[in-house]
Every structure is written in structure tokens, then in C-alpha cells.
Amino acid sequence: MSFVIILSPEATTLPLGLIGVCRTIGHTCPMGIFRGRKARTDGGAVVSDRNASRADLDALRAFAESRKGVEAYVEPKTSVTQTTLLLVAADGESIRRRVASAQAAYEFARKKLNIPVYDANLVGVPSRKRNYDLRKAKGTPPPQSSSATPPPAKQTPKELAAIMTLESIAGVDPLPTNPSFDDLMRVYRKARKQAHPDRLGGERTKWDTVEDAARALGLPD
Questions:
Q1: What range does the domain containing 3 cover?
Q2: How far apart are CA 7 and CA 207, in angstroms?
């Protein structure tokens, strides 16, 4: 929609808000000039112009300190979203907040929260988050913690091979016979860290091997 501004020859000033926009009598001006501008990316998509705030960082810190097994996933800026930091707990509960930049997200997770941090574009978002979100949407209670379930009396050959794979990639001493859930998770997390594609010596193939071993053992990713 547009409108035409008609000024008398005696007019020496323009209405407030039109100075510098309509300089000649009869000039057509778009109605949108009165609306507040929204931030746009290079691709032209409209995004929120709100930056990360102290409240965002405080919320991330509170989540990390009050949950177990929290890992961080940096979600880089796209054509429609700003950079965000996703924290996922061991049970899949998560929180996502804006951050100033990808570098700031890595430093905050490593130095302030002291938790593992990954590039979401490289490793993806863990399936335990999706499962948690689905359970919450359906109102289904969370499954019983694996740590409360006694380990099987004897591992299958596939499970033994998976344990050896995690031990090898993590670079740790062999676990005891019938290791506990906590022992397995400790080695699994260390193996993930060693195999991370962003880490020196890490690679995607090794990362996938770690994830396959974890699935064979029924560990949450």
C-alpha cells in the first residue's frame, strides 16, 4: 500500500518522520517507512536482533550446575537464526540460549561450565534430546535410570567388543568385569572427546565407531 503526500507551495517543512524521505510535492512513499526495522541477514531473512544477555548465560550456567552428564552443542549462525548454545543433560532434558558467537560459546562451555562441547553441524544433536522431547509432549514418564539397573551377569561378544573399542579410543585401562553404568559412561564420554572431529587426531569415522559401540551397550548418546 502507498499514499501520496500533497504539500502546499507555502509549506517549508515536512511532517515529523518524513524529512529526508519525501522531498518533493506528490512524491509517493511506502507505508512501511513508519514501521520499525527488523534485523536482516545477508540473505534477506528476518531474524530477531536481540543479542545474548546476562540472563541467557545465567540460565545456561544454572542448568549445567543442576543436571548430570551435561554436554554442550554449538549451533552456528544461519540465514534465519543467530548463534545458539544447546545444553543436553544425560536424560535428554535440554536448554538453548543465544550466545554472542561460536567462539564465545566454546569458551563459555569449556572455561565457565567445564563440560564437553561439540559442533552441532558436525556431530548432530543427540537422540536422547529428541526422545526426551517426545516423552514430554506425550506426557510419558521418563524411563528408569540405567544406573539403578544391575549389569547383566555376562556380556555378549558384541558388548565385549564394544567395551574394548571404547577403551581403546579413550586410551584408558581395561574396565573391570561387568562394569557399572557410570564406568561405561565415563569411558564413553572420554572416547567421544578423543574422537571429536574438531580435535587434533579426531575424525568422523572414529566418532561414528564410538557411537556404534555406545548403541551396542545401550548407552544414551
A1: 1-36
A2: 70
Is 221 a domain residue?
no
Residue 49 lies in a domain: no
For the segment 102-149, what is each residue's pLDDT rounded down to a tens digit?
A: 999 999 999 999 998 899 888 888 888 988 999 888 887 766 544 444
pTM of the full predicted structure?
Answer: 0.53
The runs of H, that is alpha helices, within 14-144 are 54-66, 102-107, 120-123, 127-138
Please, which residues have CB within 8 angstroms of residue 72's CB and are 6 or more apart in sequence?
85, 86, 87, 105, 109, 113, 115, 116, 117, 118
pLDDT band at 203 (very low <50, low <70, confident <90, very high): confident
Residues 75, 219: Cα–Cα separation, whole Å? 24
Q: Which of 66, 221, 218, 92 is nearest to 146 (CA)?
A: 218
What is the rounded distance in angstroms from the CA atom of residue 92 to the CA atom of residue 147?
A: 15
Rounded Cα–Cα distance for residues 140 and 197 (Å): 35
The verdict on residue 42 lying in a domain is no
119 shares its domain with 150: no
Percent of the chain with pLDDT over 70: 70
- Cβ atoms of residues 221 and 127 within 8 Å: yes
Q: Which domain-ending residue is among 86, 106, 138?
A: 138
Task: Scan for cell 514501521, then name that residue.
Answer: 35
